[in-house]
Structures
1.
Amino acid sequence: MAGLKKTIIRSGLESLYFSGGHHLMRPLLGGIGSILTFHHVRPPRLEAFQPNRLLEITPVFFERLIARLVRSRLDVVSLDEMHDRLLNGSKRRFVSLTFDDGYRDNLRWAYPLLRKHKLPFAIYIPTSFPDRLGELWWVALETVIAKNKRIGLTINGKDQFFECASVREKRELYDAVYGYLRSLKTEDELRRVVRDLCACHCVDIPALCEELCLSWEELGQLAADPLVTIGAHTVNYVMLKKLPTDAAVRAEMEMSRAVIEAALGVRPQHLAYPVGDKTSAGPREFRIAAQLGFKTAVTTRPGVLFKAHRNHLTALPRISVNGEYQQQRYMKVLMSGAATAMWNGFRRVDAA
């Protein structure tokens, strides 16, 4: 099913590009700007089983994308500048670059290129990651399945066992377990299942955080650069919509901002919702972010920015730079607004 979905998406992007449809639609659907989302930027891994490959792009692709942005007529702007343009209008189209989660490869591979071209960017930090208390549960799940030929999992109080010797079995099992975890009603349930799974199969969750995520010292290096905006991304990287009370949501947002300010001396004015889709952030979260005074808050709902987003500054869409679609022509289609408009049923604002 996942493979079929990728094929359909890829076919749609190819059709819009080679038909020239994205050029024709851009004046109507391209909006005034866009926000790009990155996660990992690192050399390609060799393993055949990579269920989280959508979260990583290669340095070569990233460099080509940056070179294209530099040559284009787009202004690459900071989140503060984006905020100002949304409020006051913009005669020129713009793009903002954002990195989620604070991975160490951002410093190693992405930052030197951005600094070379003097391009501003933002990095959203879940504070439990540099504190080395974070749980990258999707990576932990991949690691468990990658290392084993058979795993056990307790589902609805029953012990079940699954074969995963082949790459195909691993992919199918990952998709099934990931879907099951996302369907659980609370974050506590999800985390408990993953912790038990890792304990049974000798996967060290804190070690994954230590290996992959920036330390406070490394974040300090980035924060000292005027090109860099440090944004809040909650404390524990929780799907906020699954939290039972407004107070719990508020605490994740407020504490994240307070910890970053104490550690780096900068108070975040911008927020990203973890996961960021409709199952993870909605009107309640948008309202609380506004009440807390964040200038902007971003989702992962696909879309470009229109003038109407000035009234929805804590529910902004982004364009995910997906590792499964590392073609410059796909980025042209996505940033034209054509593909995301079709995805959104041609609604300019999706804040419900």
2.
Amino acid sequence: MIESLIYFSPYLIMLIAILILMFGEHEEDEHYRCFRFSRIMLLTSLVLAVIFYNKPPILGFSIGNRYTLIFECMLYSGSLILLYLSRKWFAAMHRPAYLFCGSLFITLLFGNLLVASIDLRLSSACAIMLMFNNYLMLRYSDVQKESNTRTRIYFALILGGTFLLLGATLYIWQMCGMTDYEKIRLYLEFEKDDTHTYITIIMLILPFLFLLGLAPLHFGQTETLSKTFLPVFTYFMLLPTIAVWGGFIHLNISVLPPIAAYLQTFYVSIALLSVGVGAIGACGGQNVYKIFSYFAVYGSGIILLTLRRFTPNALNSGFVYMFVYLLAILGICSCLFGLKKKGEYLFMLTEFEGAAQKRPYITAMMLVFMFSLLGMPPLSGFLGLFSALNYQALHHHFYQLIYLLIMMLVVGYAFLQIMRTLYFIEHKTAFDRADSGIYTAIFLNAILMLIIVLKPQFLAENIYQMLESMFQ
């Protein structure tokens, strides 16, 4: 009992932080104290998670290995960076920070459990909590009145996803008598040709695709995010994405191999649709948050298209693209934190006109991160995109390869419009002075991307070790 409690201590610390932040008494002017408390609790939980990385936090319901450790470290790192970038803005704008910090801890707690889960009941509960926490973050971000309808649509999608998850879990529990991943996999070995089983698995998968923002389930997120403030937008771009990809990949590797051939057509269809919708959607608006939200749909589509049947080679290519993609997204969001006017972050493309004249270093790095997202050589994004495209070529998926290249050109057009606004339109906006911490975050991000370019084996070796732990 004591041993299990020790192994659960990283999660226990997050639970204590949630209770204090969500239900404690708070003063309006204690922004810095709230962020300081959150950083201390995060770092303490991170240290304990690393120490006990190979010990399951919930015996019989979860595992611990290099795979879970890497995703947990990504979640912790993303949360710490987000707290670092956001802290001064909350104080300057006099916004209560405890709800924002509490929601980060909720995502960390249930995201880490989702990645480590080997029981369908725990996975479903974590996915449901992540969906409702996303809604909490959207409501907290003071969505403008005209977007309330979109928020209600997002809530309706959450209820639909909850219904699908609960229905699929109960059906599988009734059929198998168990919800353990290994037991479900054995059941699917004998029932893989059953139509009801296939429909149940699709019901189970759809909420994960919704959380990842894949088309056609993307619109609730892409439309609503265009009205949020930057810390919440950055949260959506990073933390739920990391957690859900970790849990979704684990589910496919541990449970769904018997029906991988049946699911491949479904995954490819969703992936191709997402790539097309994301690329075209990124060209159709003036809201910068909306443009990058659609690019997230495009990027998730490439990841899913590469993973497809979740073989070791596919996982290797997909993970390379995923890590480089998340790093570039973090870099872009860090640059956006350095561009604001009268204390408010900018989000309309016209507000960025001539930004290169006043913030040359930030805009230059923003272009670097954008073209890294696009996969332009010699940037680190080329390593990820080349890995994804190479997988398509090696497996003779030439039509899909051509389609990806065309969509890459479409996304490139959207990015050229941003570059034109930043560099070739006369300066109109008086930007606030950027905090020195923004430059530090951008610099460190650039250094990490440079290391990946110069030492690609650094990334490859860690991915190999992670895959090895997954297939043990």
3.
Amino acid sequence: MRHILLSCIILLLALAFCLFSMLHVRDICRKTLDLLSSAQTAAERNDFETCRASMQDAALHWKQYERYFGLALRHEEVDDVISRFAALNQYAVLADRDDFLAGCAELMSAVRHLREMELPTVENIL
């Protein structure tokens, strides 16, 4: 009986971590998307000072959770987001509006994809 109880407790702990991870990753991605959206809006107004600040806030927010992402997400996709942040930073420094907007859209799409992958859907389970 103790073995069954111990097994159930371990299973519940694993499920609790999965639920926490799903909610936490989705929240981190939402905050990152909000910051990137404000950077995109600033770039559309040609306000690259505000744009750089918002983009750097998004990058710092993302970087703060990199180790956690190593546990919770696939490494290739996290590396892709990191490299997209580096490219976006260069576009912001150069104040290249068109490239920044295109790079920002790609980065936001990659972050949205990571956020959607955390949902318990049939596609994600299989």
4.
Amino acid sequence: MRALLPILAMSLLAACSGSKESEGDSAADYAQRAGFATASPAVAEVNAQPIVAPTGSAKLAALTAEAPKALGQYKGGCTFAYQGRQILVVRPPVKAGGDIEGLLVIEGQQIILPGSEAADGGVTLAGAGYTVSVSRAAGNERGVAGLKVSGPQGDTIFTPGTWSCAA
């Protein structure tokens, strides 16, 4: 009987502890807590801090190398990078004269915005309550540009950045 007493005590203790197998966050829990919507982890760097501009309050997320896949398969296109991190990708028209699309993550939400033309000099995209425009800086500095996000938070300007387009 004395030999069974420790075994019964340990069994009772284990049954009452209600142990969980994992106390850590799931990827979705962490993304939610970090301020990213669960719809955007495939395109946004979930563990990265939001990118904040010197003026305005909109927060963007750095995009992963997989982000262009969310716009479908295409050749060419343009990107805007700020502080060395890509925050906007723009798909060229699928057919001649067609519309373009741009992808970015604003306030943790993946947003795809339509536009009419992206060129070496810049682009304007609008939809979902936002207008996003890229303008090449005046002067001879190739690629230097600014990104303006207009939306519910007002205007936010990310500058200087780099705008580049591939054929």
